[in-house]
Each structure stands twice: as structure tokens, then as C-alpha cells.
Amino acid sequence: MRRSLIFILCLLPTAAYANVVWPALYLETRLFSWWAIGLGLLVEFFFVKWLFTFPTKKAVIATTSANAVSAIAGIVLIPLAGIVWELFPGSVINWTFSWGTFNPITWGATFVLGFLVNGLLEGAVYKKWFFSEFRFKSKAFLWLLVANSLSVGAAFISLWLKPVQL
């Protein structure tokens, strides 16, 4: 009975949603552009060198390692965070204000989720391999979030300066 119902539901005509896009996907394309990566590494290098008082070579290795991990994991996690936002609370906000996906609140949430995901991933790398005293409930973590907000912010602003061409 259950399989028959699923089969019948699959035969019903529905609209295809393979073209669904949300702001986190747009942001991710910019986060992986050469200039955003270079700017992010440069900004975060100075923060890491200052935060952990690392010598230059160790700061370069730590920053590069943390950003490599956040880039690889971020390929999945940033869009996933965006879709979770879209399901809730984004859908509630969209319904309440009769807005679509690309609204000011969702764009703001995308920015926050972008630098928060990167900051958490990079913080985990610093704690595990470079600075075991690192704490997520510390001023150092807040400064790491500031550094990530600057690099994600540059990618974010570029979406308005040069919109994605479809």
C-alpha cells in the first residue's frame, strides 16, 4: 500500500525545481574567486599573526591550512547553511512579508552564516593543530570572526559591484 502511494505520487505532474537558487550559492561563487581567496588570506594572516603571536612562517602555514580546510568543507557547508536558513526561518520571513528568497534579511543572514561557518572551521583547525589554548568563547574567536567577516564581506560586496551574470 505504502509503495503504491509513493508510486502514484511520483506520477503526479509537478513543477521541476532543479533551478532553485538561494543567496548562499551566489556568495560561494565569489568566495572561490582568486581575488577573494588572496584578500582573505592576506587579511587573516595579519589577524592570526597578531592573535596567536606566531612568527611569520608559522602564521602563513596556519592561515593557509585553516583556509584550505574551510574552503573544502565550505563547499558543502555554506550552501547547506543557506538552504537550512531558507527552510526555516527564511520561509517564515518570506511568507510573513510576501518576499522572495533574495530579500534583505536573507542576504544579511547569508553574510553572517558565511563568516560564522568559516570562523568555526578555521577556529577548529587553529585549536587542533596550531594553538591548543584557543577557545571558541574568547576574544580571540571574536577577532577571528571579524577577520572572516572582512574577507567574506569583500566577496559579498562584489555581488553588488559586479552581479552574477546568468
Report on this model:
It is built from 6 helices and no strands. It has helices spanning 2-11, 23-31, 34-52, 56-97, 104-130, 139-161. The N and C termini lie far apart (44 Å). It is an all-alpha fold. It is globular.
Shape from CA axes? globular
Are there runs of 5+ residues with pLDDT below 50, and where? 14-18
* Biggest sheet record: none
- How big a fraction of the residues is strand? under 5%
Number of helices: 6
Overall residue-averaged pLDDT value: 89
Spatial gap, N to C terminus: 44 Å
- Helicity level: over 70%
Label the structural class: mainly alpha
Order of helices and strands: HHHHHH
User: Nearest-angstrom radius of gyration?
Assistant: 19 Å
Beta-strand segment tally: 0
Task: Based on the model shown, name its key terms.
166 residues, mainly alpha, 6 helices, globular
SSE map:
Elements: H1 2-11, H2 23-31, H3 34-52, H4 56-97, H5 104-130, H6 139-161
Helix pairs in contact: 2-4, 2-6, 3-4, 3-6, 4-5, 5-6
Summary of the model, kept short:
The chain has about 170 residues and is an all-alpha fold. It has helices at about 1-10, 25-30, 35-50, 55-95, 105-130, 140-160.
